[in-house]
Write a structure and sequence with these properties.
- The protein is built from 5 helices and 28 strands.
- By secondary structure, the protein is mainly β.
- The strands form 4 sheets. Strands 20, 21, 22, 23, 24, 25, 26, 27 and 28 form a 9-stranded antiparallel sheet that branches. The chain has a 6-stranded antiparallel sheet with strand order 1-2-6-4-5-3, sandwiched between helices. A 6-stranded antiparallel sheet has the order 7-8-12-10-11-9, covered by helices on one side.
- The N terminus and C terminus are likely disordered.
- The structure holds 2-acetamido-2-deoxy-beta-D-glucopyranose (3 copies).
- This is Apple domain-containing protein.
């Protein structure tokens, strides 16, 4: 349900502010979901045609959000933005551009336009090129793997405008065996590390990645750099004998195995390989050239690409939120961006004890609260609400860290007027410990409306074991180990 999750806090604040002062969508626009008028029709923009889907949201895949006044303007923005294939328009004047069609879900507050243009070129948008083979101009074939990260093994990085440019750069770089592309960052890699799922990484793996084993046969790897699985980079010198400085000798069936033995031996900085004998050295004597020895000199440890964020535990045993039902007044909530509105804590007519009331005349008001959440966990938000009148241009919005993910207007559901209603269950996945929930009430066209809120509840996340049993389990684990 969240058309956007990527707005920065600053952008969100600007949004919240703008939402209260900008004009309502102008009536009589050709393409509209007012009364579902344009539902299931095709809208022709300058470059592409778009299917109009009223009350449907393809959440996620956001490229950015912009204030616009009409649905047509929103579609035009997408039509002229490279990579945009879908928009979500919220009729209070917000437009999200998307570069993916995710799974659609019903959301009465969202109007969607979905491009009919076919995807072309090399792209992981909608997994378009996934599992396909791509051949770069130099004739190197790559297997495309969308959403896969072979983290580590980096040899260099650059910014490229397209995935193709990134893969082509690998194709023309000796020793490059795969790339990770997370637009616009392009990482060239000289070693195949273990793959892991990472939805925003697009990978291309040289088909012959394993067909280029480290060898000095025909001086194949001479003067090239080789990266081992431990991310240590060696310069290969076919015929270089780093005589002396021996710390140990082992047998290894392969040259690569010899370098791995050096990795494992503390202090080892170069090797001399005379198959199967592998001499590990801790002194860098100048090499004798032109021998039958396959030499390698340790250069550096690569700094691997930052690993995908692992779920981070952030006060998992605190309540997710304080005062969901306003029973201590609005003290746990920050009131801000209040303009032409009055926020008060009330008890009459509330579902349980107390509730909050916002009276707005062409205004807006935000109630915000920090949540105690665990990154990567999924939470459910529910809100009880009541509007005093079925005003066309009043909306109740919910934001997580500035990312709008729910909007509701009484015009879509007249039965919410004068009666408490329960919102649908709105789910979000916490992307950071430092998470803020903001509930915004906004009227854009001069109405005087009262809205009441109660039971703003966020639940979910990991269950918190009792302290005693947790330490007991730790103890058992230690004993078993
Ligand atoms: C729009 O369509 C939805 C779903 O079919 C329906 O529930 C709603 O009443 C319609 N709204 C109008 C104004 O026709
Ligand atoms: C829009 O049209 C589609 C296809 O006819 C229909 O399934 C859907 O319920 C309609 N939506 C609304 C909101 O009317
Ligand atoms: C792409 O494929 C992956 C793995 O099959 C899947 O999890 C993901 O949802 C797909 N993404 C899109 C946008 O279809």
């Amino acid at each position: 349900m969240h058309p956007t999750t990527h707005l920065t806090k600053g952008a969100a604040a600007a949004l919240l502010l703008a939402a209260g002062v900008s004009a309502a969508p102008s009536p009589g626009t050709a393409v509209t979901c007012e009364n579902n008028a344009s539902n299931n029709t095709v809208y022709t923009a300058q470059n592409a045609q778009f299917d109009i889907l009223c009350g449907i949201d393809y959440s996620g895949g956001d490229m950015g959000a912009e204030r616009v006044s009409t649905f047509a303007e929103c579609i035009t923005r997408c039509d002229s933005t490279p990579g945009c294939i879908n928009v979500a328009f919220a009729p209070w004047g917000m437009c999200w551009l998307k570069n993916q069609n995710t799974t659609p879900s019903p959301n009465s507050g969202v109007w969607t336009a979905k491009s009919k243009a076919a995807l072309t070129g090399l792209t992981c948008i909608d997994n378009f090129s996934d599992k396909k083979t791509y051949t770069s101009p130099g004739g190197t074939a790559f297997d495309i793997a969308c959403g896969v990260d072979y983290a580590g093994g980096d040899m260099s990085s650059r910014n490229t405008n397209t995935f193709k440019e990134c893969v082509d750069a690998c194709g023309s770089t000796p020793g490059c065996v795969n790339v990770a592309y997370s637009a616009p960052s392009c990482y060239l890699k000289s070693a195949m590390m273990a793959p892991r799922t990472n939805s925003h990484v697009w990978a291309a793996v040289r088909k012959d990645a394993d067909a280029d084993p480290l060898t000095c046969e025909n001086k194949k790897w001479d003067a090239r750099e080789f990266t081992t699985k431990d991310n240590r980079v060696y310069s290969i010198g076919c015929g270089d004998d780093y005589a002396g400085g021996d710390m140990a000798a082992v047998d290894s069936a392969t040259f690569q195995g010899c370098l791995e033995a050096c990795d494992a031996a503390s202090g080892c900085i170069n090797v001399a390989y005379v198959a199967p004998r592998c001499y590990l050295k801790n002194v860098a004597n100048p090499p004798a050239k032109g021998t039958h020895v396959w030499g390698a000199k340790f250069l550096r440890v690569n700094v691997p690409t930052p690993p995908a964020p692992t779920p981070y535990t952030c006060n998992p045993c605190s309540p997710v939120m304080l005062n969901p039902s306003f029973d201590d007044g609005t003290n746990s909530w920050t009131q801000r961006d209040v303009s032409n509105s009055v926020i008060s804590s009330i008890s009459a007519g509330s579902v349980s004890g107390s509730a909050v009331q916002v009276v707005s005349t062409r205004g807006y008001a935000v109630l915000a609260q920090k949540l105690s959440v665990v990154t990567g966990s999924t939470y459910s938000l529910t809100v009880d609400y009541m509007f005093s009148a079925a005003m066309t241009n009043c909306y109740l919005n919910a934001f997580i860290n500035g990312g709008w993910f729910w909007s509701f207007s009484p015009r879509y559901e007249p039965t919410s007027v004068g009666a408490w209603k329960k919102s649908p269950v709105l789910q979000f996945t916490a992307s950071a410990c430092d998470t803020e929930l903001a509930i915004q009430f906004v009227c854009t066209a001069g109405e005087s409306v009262t809205m009441k809120l109660d039971n703003i509840k966020v639940t979910g996340g990991p269950t918190c074991p009792a302290k005693a049993s947790r330490s007991l389990r730790g103890l058992e684990r230690r004993r078993l180990a």
